Amino acid sequence: MRTLQTNIIKLSLVPLVGFLIVCISLGYWQVIRAPALRAHPYNDQAQQRAKSIQPGQVYTSDDQLILGVRQTPEGWVRAYPAGEVYAHRTGYDYKTGLSQGLHQALLGVGRYENFWRNFRNGRPTGLNVILTLDSSAQATAARLLRGKRGAVVALQPQTGAVLALASAPSYDPQRVLDNDIVYEMFRSDPASPELNRALQGLYPPGSVFKIFTAAAALDAGVANPQTVFTCAGAETIAHTLVKCRNASGHGRVSLTWALADSCNVTFAKLAEQLGPQRFRSYAKKFHLLDSAKLCLPGKSGKMADVLAYKGERELVQAGFGQGATLLTPVAVAQLAATIANGGQVIRPYLVDSIEEFNGRVVYRGRGQHLGQAISQQTADQVEGMMVVAVEKGTGGGAAIRGTVVAAKTGSAENPHGPPHAWIVVLAPAHQAQAVVVVVVENGGSGGEVAAPIAREVLKALLR
């Protein structure tokens, strides 16, 4: 009898457990996951509901409106008052740019949904987004890139705040939206105006990568700024023919002057002495290949496996920024910001704050600290070598009267045409308020083509 009672109890537990599982499942999907499901872009009801929501707007740090909103008989639609200057930030519809990356915040849905806010406002409303961008620096970068292909990135090194983020060629979002012919031409344009080169462009970094090689070698104790190398103009290093930009060679040259006058042979030898293990270790410490994660589509960098069979050849080429090494401009800017920030790596951020219409802040952005890549002493040494590059070497085009500027130029070879022109600039040196990186596709000389752009953007930031 007792066995029968036990079996009846066990049997009765089956529907009870099933009922509890159903309740928990319904509670999870209808309560916990409900905001995310309602906000999901593939939810048709969410798309219809979004038309009734007054979206939030996007501003620069100095209150310039770059992504607005206007009401039509069909509902709320986006406006693009800043045009092509911010096109790669705003995008041209809800599936592109920050309209996609900040979809939940701008519509006040998902994690930003607030019933009482909508009740107080009398209608569903989104949140406003304040970016870290400086409108003067951004406008200067966009103007100087016009007619070129390339990108400008400016960072505040101590915080990681993105001060400028420009890509060229650009486009007018409103024209793309309003005209089907313009849209088709835009999508099929071989110049790829939709590509955000600052975050998605992968380029051989060329000689600006010597900043990394110098920093790694100094920090590892392989060399110091006064270490002397010899350059014959063209030498075979690790079974790889390395040609210096100075065809006749630099002769005996210190590491400082090798950086200032961009000696390929010296940095090939330096990478060989550093070795593949330490080279790869420092690449990880600097987070060189990381994607930027700025609420916008981005790409990760690429680098050959220097530990693989015959990896010594790739190591030698990587030492001066060639071979299989490909980086985005924002990754190069983060590298430079690490030098300016005493060796501390900070992941950049673009969103300063997210606010309700009454100004109440619901989110505050900040750069993520990723660790110490090199010592403060090493960072100071590299920055001092970059000052020499401006005062006596290839970076003279970045000089600003009354300000001590540190810089490194680059002309990166590529298989598709003339070299890409690069420059990295920090100012004021040893107390940098801003880091500026410029790349101009097929521009040739970084000192002649990229330096004037960086100088003007830097001047806009230092005013």
Topology:
Elements: H1 2-32, H2 34-39, H3 44-50, E1 58-59, E2 65-72, E3 75-79, H4 87-90, H5 97-101, H6 103-107, H7 115-121, E4 128-131, H8 135-145, E5 150-155, E6 162-168, H9 173-178, H10 180-188, H11 197-200, H12 210-220, E7 228-231, E8 234-237, E9 240-243, E10 251-254, H13 255-260, H14 264-274, H15 276-285, H16 311-319, H17 329-340, E11 344-347, E12 351-355, E13 361-364, E14 368-372, H18 376-391, E15 406-414, E16 417-427, E17 434-440, H19 446-462
Walkthrough of the structure:
This protein is of the alpha+beta class. Helices cover 40% and strands 20% of the residues. It contains 19 helices and 17 strands. The strands form 5 sheets. It has a 6-stranded mixed β-sheet, with no helix packed on it. The chain has a 5-stranded antiparallel β-sheet with strand order 6-5-17-16-15, with helices on both faces. It has a two-stranded antiparallel ribbon with strand order 7-10. Helix 12 crosses helix 18. It is globular and about 90 Å long. The model has no long low-confidence stretch (mean pLDDT 89).
Can you count the beta strands? Answer: 17
Largest sheet: 6 strands, mixed
Form type: globular
* Radius of gyration computed on alpha carbons: 27 Å
Query: What ranges have pLDDT less than 50 throughout 5 or more consecutive residues?
Result: none
> If strands are numbered along the chain, what order do they take across the biggest sheet?
3-2-1-4-12-13
Query: Could you estimate the helical fraction of the residues in percent?
Result: 40-55%
Look at the helices and sheets and give the structural class.
alpha+beta
Q: Give the termini separation.
A: 92 Å
H/I helix tally: 19
Strand content: 15-25%
The average pLDDT is 89
